Amino acid sequence: xxxxxxxxxxxxxxxxxxxxxxxxxxxxxxxxxxxxxxxxxxxxxxxxxxxxxxxxxxxxxxxxxxxxxxxxxxxxxxxxxxxxxxxxxxxxxxxxxxxxxxxxxxxxxxxxxxxxxxxxxx
Length: 122
Known about the structure:
- This protein is an all-beta fold.
- It has no helices and twelve strands.
- A hairpin with a 4-residue loop joins strand 8 and strand 9.
């Protein structure tokens, strides 16, 4: 299983986060290599690489598009509308699903830029 954090908006437009899991199953993914574990495929339509400079701060905003974020370097603190905060580090996966409402705010932590691979849904 792979754990990820999903940020979403409730009916009133307040964002929250929850920890979710992606199931993996054994698959002959790249024969003749041995089987490995894969998730079910999800269609995305673009990939964008992002870099948040050190000390970057993003005011309250909804995500511009539903997207997976895969943190490659650095740390980012994300606060949701209900006041909860979490820190994502390199290797973490976040699903931004708060396309409506107040959204979330983000802050780059530490002395290095935060680099992110963002996969946008169709």
